[in-house]
Design brief:
Radius of gyration: 24 Å
Helix content: 40-55%
Strand content: 5-15%
Distance between the termini: 42 Å
Number of helices: 18
Oligomer: single chain
Order of helices and strands: HHHHHHEHHEHEEHHHHHHEEHEEHH
Length: 420
């Protein structure tokens, strides 16, 4: 469409109508946030010159947008059909799911000490690193146990059932109130629609950077969400764990879960006692710039990892094989695996183009899928998207990211792409 024609469109009214259309077409399990995203993507495709231009002679604009939405919804259904779901075997102690679950529990057990950790960070880095302790971001599909894990973790901390906050609570006023009122019990937002809600982003960004005061404790933040992508500004502010599992909703499993939630567990009393001792011991070493002590701040869960290992030693028990001795993202990379899966399915093609790497995504991938894949790439990998093509300028950094889990992966990708 010509610019003059685009300016005549009442986009606000069109967006509302299109969102309603998308909501109706989504069917069972439909969600207004998803419908809104689909409507927005359809409008972006009409405006984006990289997509097929709309000819008014072919019919009404709204009819065309409705067709685009229908196609996007079909692609979503195809993606679900192609995906394979990993279900954890409870007998498999090396299960990645168990390791990821343990990582999330470590975060919750250490969350009440986030304020003290921030003090150590200020002592070590001053204004050189002001973003503060990372927020926990648990991503996973619906009905995969995220909320159940949250309930269990909050009970460990409080000693009784405590309801998490909701998506409606996730707003700027609430975050500002947490800073003003103080406290160390973590603020856990269950099933948020997205991190970048209107007017909340600025409060999130400044939560530790500008709002923190050493004399006023403020709680750590944690989120569960069904949205795979996080905004660019959040990538360095969240500790993300991916729950790639489905909870089988049966009477037996529900009964087992209830038994687990009802069971008394005093572990946090021990964790708190040992954490205070560890923090007290670590403070002078960090202020003295002892390198080994400062390096512990690279891992947000380092102190809690050490404390749990102390507890296993005191109990005379060996660490389970699935205990995350180091951050899980250094052990296996779910984002990397998704790239590999798309490569195997023929959904992306890598081509060397001089000093850059050109990645062309399949036409049947909708923009949401392309954006999701691109969002997994770390910020330090300089790249830019042009329609369904990604141009990577920092090729060596891209190489390093893909080869974190297995040095042979990059070799395999280059061989598949014909650039080895």
């Amino acid at each position: 469409m010509e610019l003059e024609q685009l300016e005549k469109v009442d986009w606000a009214r069109t967006s509302v109508r299109l969102t309603s259309h998308a909501y109706r077409r989504l069917g069972t399990g439909r969600d207004w946030h998803v419908a809104e995203e689909l409507a927005q993507e359809a409008i972006e495709q009409v405006i984006d010159p990289n997509y097929k231009d709309f000819d008014p002679a072919d019919g009404s604009l709204f009819k065309h947008l409705g067709s685009v939405v229908n196609g996007l919804i079909q692609n979503r259904g195809r993606k679900k059909a192609e995906s394979c779901v990993t279900v954890a075997d409870p007998k498999d102690e090396t299960s990645a799911v168990r390791r990821v679950s343990y990582e999330a529990l470590l975060y919750f057990l250490g969350a009440p000490f986030a304020h003290e950790r921030m003090k150590l960070m200020q002592a070590a880095f001053g204004f050189g690193k002001s973003k503060g302790p990372k927020a926990l971001y648990i991503y996973g599909a619906t009905n995969n146990g995220k909320s159940s894990l949250t309930k269990f973790a909050l009970k460990l901390l409080a000693g009784h059932f405590t309801k998490p906050l909701t998506n409606d609570d996730y707003r700027k006023r609430k975050l500002d109130a947490m800073v003003t009122m103080g406290g160390v019990f973590p603020a856990v937002f269950d099933d948020v629609a997205r991190l970048s809600k209107a007017h909340v982003s600025s409060a999130f960004k400044g939560y530790w950077e500008s709002a923190w005061r050493a004399e006023f404790p403020q709680p750590a933040l944690a989120f569960t969400c069904n949205k795979a992508t996080v905004p660019e500004w959040a990538k360095t502010r969240v500790l993300r764990v991916d729950f790639d599992v489905v909870f089988r909703d049966s009477a037996v499993n529900s009964a087992r879960l209830n038994d687990l939630l009802q069971r008394e567990n005093p572990i946090f009393d021990w964790v708190a006692h040992l954490s205070v001792a560890r923090l007290a011991e670590l403070g002078p070493r960090i202020r003295a710039r002892e390198e080994a002590a400062v390096e512990l701040l690279d891992d947000d869960l380092s102190i809690t990892r050490l404390v749990l290992q102390d507890l296993y030693t005191h109990a005379g028990r060996e660490l389970p094989s699935y205990f995350p001795r180091q951050p899980v993202h250094t052990l296996f990379n779910p984002e990397q695996r998704r790239w590999m899966e798309h490569q195997r399915l023929g959904k992306l093609e890598l081509k060397q183009d001089g000093n850059t790497l050109r990645i062309e995504f399949a036409e049947d991938l909708d923009t949401h899928e392309v954006k999701e894949l691109i969002s997994y790439i770390p910020q330090e990998v300089k790249s830019r998207r042009v329609g369904h093509t990604l141009i990577v300028e920092a090729v060596s950094e891209f190489h390093h990211w893909l080869s974190k889990e297995d040095d042979s992966i990059w070799t395999r990708i280059k061989r598949w792409a014909g650039i080895a």
